[in-house]
From TrEMBL:
Full protein name: TF-B3 domain-containing protein
Keyword Kinase: no
Gene3D superfamilies: DNA-binding pseudobarrel domain (2.40.330.10)
Pfam families named among the record's database cross-references: B3
Organism: Papaver somniferum
Length: 256
């Protein structure tokens, strides 16, 4: 039982909803080690969507991978999901997932799903422990601590202990290649919550093989002046304005 609990730790993975995902959803193969053998052999999974409602889906394990099938299409329809919506999955153990949904405009849908809460047939046992150094397994099969899709204005960074200790946030290679040109010196970060009028201006640090948000991250991350970031928080950024000397990023933070 201890081995089962230790392997069923909380993790995230990301998925852009495509046509083939409307009726069934494939769990990224790189995510399988995060699930115990008992969980992978389960016949059912529970997905929590908008408004806190739960949907039970059938798990189908094939040669191509592990899929959420029967019940997934209902989840998609009743939550009003559309093509290219950006889904952030959080795994809670025992084949139980919660999902945050970003629309193409970058926000979370404001409507709440009115579908009834459906009881889970699975065990309530789950692991509440945290890891010191959590990786992210995005749907493209690459294990990393940040996620970005080419051509997108969105990218995500999962906060690691070293980021808080050294006061920096890494910039994914894809997004810096497409949006962070050589003359860019800083970014301005604003909260996706319009009621929060604060803004953080952060300088860009260019290294030989890396690029980071550096000076100013301490204020952005701390409790007094910033968003009180913790290890495991997922910062989802949207590029809302591009200037010759500055990018404006909108941020939304996901946490337990």
């Amino acid at each position: 039982m201890e081995k089962f609990v230790n392997r069923d730790r909380k993790h995230h993975f990301y998925k852009v909803l495509l046509e083939e995902d409307q009726t069934r959803m494939r769990i990224p193969e790189t995510f399988y080690p995060r699930m115990s053998r008992e969980a992978q052999s389960s016949e059912w999974a529970v997905v929590q969507g908008l408004g806190g409602a739960h949907w039970v889906t059938k798990v189908n394990k094939t040669q191509d991978g592990i899929y959420l099938e029967e019940g997934w299409e209902v989840f998609v329809q009743e939550n009003g999901l559309q093509m290219y919506d950006y889904l952030v999955f959080r795994y809670h153990g025992c084949m139980q997932f919660s999902v945050k949904v970003f629309t193409m405009s970058g926000g979370i849908p404001q409507k709440e799903c009115l579908a009834p809460v459906r009881a889970s047939p699975l065990s309530e046992e789950r692991d509440e422990s945290d890891e010191d150094d959590e990786d992210v397994a995005p749907a493209n099969g690459i294990v990393r601590r940040f996620a970005y899709r080419p051509g997108s204005r969105f990218f995500s960074v999962t906060v690691q202990p070293s980021y808080l200790k050294c006061n920096y946030l890494p910039i994914p290679w894809g997004v810096r290649r497409e949006h962070f040109h050589d003359g860019l010196k800083k970014v301005k970060i604003v909260n996706s919550d319009a009621s929060d009028t604060r803004a953080w201006r952060i300088k860009i640090l260019r290294l030989q093989k890396d690029m980071r948000l550096s000076r100013g991250v301490a204020d952005f991350a701390n409790k007094k002046n910033g968003l009180n970031l913790k290890v495991g928080d997922v910062c989802h950024f949207k590029i809302v304005k591009k200037r010759s000397h500055e990018l404006v990023l909108q941020v939304q933070v996901f946490r337990d």
